[in-house]
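Quick review question:
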């Protein structure tokens, strides 16, 4: 297990109950949505039809998104490195009477066979908290030919304008740009922040074709589910983005 993963597992195991007590109801109220502003998937259109697909929620937490996709006819498996978070997912699945296999494992070396899934989806999950040098090839291994990887993460701009001294988001650059950045965030997690160029190079090197990059602005009536970026700031500059990529046929790689 890599450094960011070990630190994040310890954080999420310790924080899972407080996190779900604070944010769980909001996430469950808008489960098929993206990021801290809960922008509806119906508006974004990143996932497309999911009925009949084998889906992996990659860093599922309490699996609010996975349960919503299962209700739409997907065969969903949830994976997370935090046993405490998976406990919340298990109880939510039971309450919804929705079968949802849950696996406690690191995202960088999952226990699944090659070509097990049609879709790997991640909303601020494994792709934000693990080393992409290992998660990107792992997703390529897990996906069938033509399968899709769709994930959200924070933008570099959001981190570059954060003033760590005052603990405030600003309108000025406060840090030097780096193509690969591991950040000990004020919230307690260790975040992995890559430039667009680094994401493109990693994805294309591991048999993905990048289909889209959706930069998310906070809507006018935004109320954040997290203390990640102020709404007024995120209405002017994107704090989050969604990457959409397709797994190229193995015969072509």
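Suggested answer, residue by residue:
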């Amino acid at each position: 297990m890599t450094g960011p993963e070990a630190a994040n597992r310890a954080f999420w195991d310790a924080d899972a109950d407080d996190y779900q007590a604070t944010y769980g109801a909001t996430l469950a109220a808008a489960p098929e949505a993206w990021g801290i502003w809960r922008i509806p998937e119906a508006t974004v259109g990143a996932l497309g039809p999911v009925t009949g697909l084998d889906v992996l929620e990659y860093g599922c937490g309490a699996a609010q998104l996975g349960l919503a996709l299962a209700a739409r006819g997907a065969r969903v498996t949830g994976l997370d490195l935090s046993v405490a978070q998976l406990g919340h997912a298990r109880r939510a699945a039971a309450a919804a009477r929705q079968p949802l296999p849950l696996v406690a494992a690191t995202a960088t070396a999952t226990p699944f066979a090659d070509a097990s899934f049609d879709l790997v989806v991640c909303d601020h999950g494994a792709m934000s908290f693990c080393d992409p040098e290992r998660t990107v090839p792992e997703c390529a291994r897990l996906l069938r030919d033509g399968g899709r990887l769709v994930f959200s993460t924070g933008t570099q701009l959001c981190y570059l304008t954060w003033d760590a001294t005052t603990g405030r988001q600003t309108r000025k650059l406060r840090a030097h740009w780096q193509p690969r950045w591991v950040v000990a965030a004020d919230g307690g997690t260790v975040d992995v922040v890559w430039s667009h160029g680094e994401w493109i190079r990693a994805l294309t090197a591991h048999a993905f074709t990048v289909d889209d990059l959706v930069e998310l602005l906070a809507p006018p009536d935004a109320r954040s589910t997290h203390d990640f970026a102020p709404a007024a700031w995120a209405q002017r500059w994107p704090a989050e983005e969604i990457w959409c990529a397709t797994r190229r046929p193995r015969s072509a790689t």
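Why it works: The two ends are 28 Å apart (CA to CA). The CA atoms of residues 55 and 76 lie 5 Å apart.
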